[in-house]
Amino acid sequence: MHPIAALQEVLHDRPCLVGTGNADRQDDAVGIRIVEGVRRLAGAIIPTVNAEDVLENHVFAIADAD
Questions:
Q1: Distance between alpha carbon 48 and the CA centroid of its chain, in Å?
Q2: Residue 35 contacts residue 49 (beta carbons within 8 Å)
């Protein structure tokens, strides 16, 4: 099974994938890099938010989204 197909199966209820981290700190940016990769591979199929290190700025938009 293709990795994106496997991810779609896991995410069948359409949750939002949120990437957090600090791009200036190498290993701390892994969440951001994962979201960027999913966006490149899956486009609009999987909703994503790149929250970086300010998740609280995105909480209401995430909660209000489909």
A1: 4
A2: yes
Nearest to 36 by CA among 23, 21, 19, 22: 19
Look at residues 53, 44, 56, 1 and name the one whose alpha carbon lies nearest to residue 17. Answer: 44
Question: How many other C-beta atoms can be found within 10 angstroms of the C-beta atom of residue 16?
Answer: 15
Length of the chain: 66
Cα separation, 46 vs 16, in Å, equals 7
pLDDT, tens digit (0-9, with 9 covering 90-100), for 21-49: 988 877 788 889 999 999 898 877 788 89
Side chain identity, residue 22: N
